[in-house]
Amino acid sequence: MTLSFFDQFMSPTFMGVPLVMVALSLPWILYPTPSNRWINNRMLTLQGWFINRFTQQMFLPLNQSGHKWAILMTSLMLFLITLNMLGLLPYTFTPTTQLSLNMGFAVPLWLATVLIGMRNQPTMTLGHLLPEGTPTPLIPFLIVIETFSLLIRPVALGVRLTANLTAGHLLIQLIATAAFVLLPMMPTVAILTTIVLFLLTLLEVAVAMIQAYVFVLLLSLYLQENI
């Protein structure tokens, strides 16, 4: 049976039951649980150091009211990083290659930042739709453009994460297929292709981490505008 390159992005099923919930719950099982001991092991220490450093860097520009989002943003980034990294393993499924899932993350969080701005400072939030000093004939057009740019933000968040991960997985599969086909005919070229595949895999590991960071960073910037 000939498989398409895009079959790897299909949600796996077992006896007709979708396994996407198993893939979504797996990251929380992998992380070690903090204990009440005074001295923790190296894994817990490294995990705590990473969470503290990330929280400090992410919420440094935000005022005190934005720090309430620290737990949510940090948990979301760890969740996305783990999903993206697990998707690079063989015979695994990457839920973040599904646009519906990424939009499910992006739309509610973006809408929450907008609603917070409309509740706390409606004048300033609406003022973002019209830059200061705009000529009078351009006011209707700029309001429409700024409104559209505001509504396109969650779409950009979801599409960016989906497109980067999908493109990386497809490129890895294409180069791996080329190396497998070239091995009996041109071993030297196949070895060089395998080296390129290894370097691309390292790049995809970096992309998986960076895209999760960018997703949360943009959400924090949207939050900063509305508090």
TrEMBL record:
Cellular component terms per the entry's GO annotation: mitochondrial inner membrane; proton-transporting ATP synthase complex
Membrane topology category: Multi-pass membrane protein
Bilayer-crossing regions: 12-31, 69-89, 101-118, 138-159, 171-199, 205-223
Keyword Ion transport found: yes
Reactions listed under catalytic activity: H(+)(in) = H(+)(out)
SUPFAM superfamilies: F1F0 ATP synthase subunit A
Localization: Mitochondrion inner membrane
NCBIfam families linked to this entry: ATP_synt_6_or_A
Family affiliation: Belongs to the ATPase A chain family.
Full protein name: ATP synthase subunit a
Native species: Cromeria occidentalis
